[in-house]
Amino acid sequence: MMRITIKQSDFELMVSHAKAGLPNEVCGLIAGKLEDGDAVIEKIYLLSNPDQSPEHFSIDPAEQLEAIKDMRKLGLAPLGNFHSHPSTPSRPSQEDIRLAYDPKASYLILSLAEKTPVLKAFEIVDGAVTQRILEIGWNTVS
């Protein structure tokens, strides 16, 4: 099973982005490197949610293109995306599952439903959801 690692500072940036976007969902892309079948997130891209909805999100195509260009410039691979759930648990909704188009992508969901934010990672292939191992806090010294 794929293991995903993310820096504590990037996790905190995602939480700040999600809180700033309340009551709506926020979203972004994750990029990094694949090492021995595991994903190492090296950069997150905080994007806007044109839908401005607490129940779903979409990614602005122009922002997505700029992020992909930056990934290429930095030699990073696109690893997937993240979005927040302002008031529901950190698990894919039926809409998240329906819209999961890339079986290689990691789908990270940050829940703000509880006092402590919860981030989980998933693989979604043909409607089947598998939780991936997520480690937060590696390489926290910048």
UniProtKB/TrEMBL annotation:
The keyword tRNA processing does not apply. SMART domains: JAB_MPN. Residues 4-128 form the MPN domain. This is Mov34/MPN/PAD-1 family protein. One of its GO terms (biological process) is proteolysis. It comes from Syntrophobotulus glycolicus (strain DSM 8271 / FlGlyR). Keywords: Hydrolase, Metal-binding, Metalloprotease, Protease, Zinc. GO terms for molecular function: metalloexopeptidase activity; zinc ion binding. It comes from the Bacteria.
